[in-house]
Specification:
By secondary structure, the protein is mainly β. It has one domain (4-98). The chain is built from one helix and eight strands; from the N terminus they run E-E-E-E-E-E-H-E-E. The chain has one helix spanning 66-74, and strands spanning 4-11, 14-22, 29-34, 40-43, 45-46, 57-60, 78-87, 90-98. It has a four-stranded antiparallel β-sheet, with helices on one face. The longest helix is centred in the C-terminal third of the chain and has 9 residues, at 66-74. The chain is globular. The relative contact order is 0.21. The model has no long low-confidence stretch (mean pLDDT 92).
């Protein structure tokens, strides 16, 4: 899995690095966060294979807490498209767009 650095983000008082990669199953955009020691912190995206996504768009993972989501949106790297998607038991997940490709 090849990771490309998106940028550093302050999340809940901690500096994390956001990376983009692709889901192996379909090549869609995946976004993850790692801490300063490169230890995985969180998956920001979830792969909804049956939902249409535009270029640089992804569904926000259900484990992302609202305070983390607010910090991620405030950093300027992501924008909320205003759309929501559902898959299985995961309902109304926001769709965000990576602003820097």
């Amino acid at each position: 899995m090849e990771l490309t650095k998106i940028g550093d983000i302050q999340v809940a008082g901690e500096i994390l690095t956001a990376y983009r990669t692709e889901y192996e199953s379909n090549g869609r955009l995946a976004v993850i966060l790692r801490d300063a020691d490169e230890i995985p912190y969180a998956a920001v995206s979830v792969n909804f294979v049956d939902q249409p996504m535009g270029e640089n768009e992804f569904a926000v993972h259900h484990d992302i807490r609202s305070v983390v989501a607010m910090d991620l949106l405030a950093c300027g790297l992501f924008e909320d498209t205003g759309r929501k998607v559902s898959c299985g038991f995961l309902r109304d997940r926001p769709v965000w767009r990576l602003k820097t490709a």
